[in-house]
Design brief:
single chain; Lipocalin; 2 helices; globular
Amino acid sequence: MFTRLALLGMLVITPVLAPGIAKAAQPIKATYVVYHQRVSATPSCAIQTGATWIAYFDYPGASQNGAVTRAEYDVPTGNALLQLSAYPTTPPAGALTWSGTVTETTIPASATVTKSFSINITYGDTKSWLWDRTVVSGACTAEDKMVLVRTGTN
């Protein structure tokens, strides 16, 4: 029969014996498919609450330049657009947040917009992670839940 002290000992010792359980591995340099769910958006946002879409994220590794997301989506006009989003230097390994400005170029319109963003990161393993992202551009503020899963290497 376990006592509370024995149970406490198991909880304290388990992370030491199984370090992978205590902290997830850092995702590796690769291309990730990104599943988006728009959970909130102000009325001025082009993509509204409830929308879902897929993108691809080229992750250059921790503390590196060159992070880019490529997404196709339909706007209210019914036009399919390609959006290239260039992010700033990626956060260091193990960081739980990432913020700054992202430059989004939409094609075929060839419009470029700079938005501020903040991301809360939850690591899965070397091939997956979760983001809770907020983006702000003018009167548009949107929140997305995102699942990133490795598709291949760069």
